[in-house]
Amino acid sequence: MMKAYGAGLLSSFGELKYSIEEDTPDRRPFDPAKTSEQSYPITEYQPVYFYTESFEDAIEKMRAFAATIPRPFTARYNPYTESIDLLDNVAKLKVMAADIKSDMTRLCHALDKLDN
Questions:
Q1: Each residue of 45-84: b (16+ CB within 10 Å) or e?
Q2: pTM of the model
Q3: Tens of pLDDT along 80-101?
Q4: Partners of 28 in the beta sheet?
Q5: CA within 20 to 30 Å of 54's CA: 84, 88, 109, 115, which one?
């Protein structure tokens, strides 16, 4: 079963139909490195569409691609604030280490209570 992903396709029934039924557009296997360099017109249907075997396959390829992008920091998702923390200096890393230590202490106490 074919599924469509992407804001442009999902917001335009005409483009979705064009991307699937017409012979004009070029269809290529999804490759994040290539899609990141692909130029697109914004006032007409796209000349190129990328496809993938599954959404999970696309996620895996995106994660692998993202890992190749050089950046002078590390990021982590903070579930308490529902935000992204940039870990780009020693002070932030110390705060993260203290948070992890506190969480681990709390976890160990909870496990001890369950063992007794």
A1: bbeebbebeeeeebeebeeeeeeeeeeeeeeeeeeeeeee
A2: 0.61
A3: 899 999 999 999 999 999 999 9
A4: 50
A5: 84
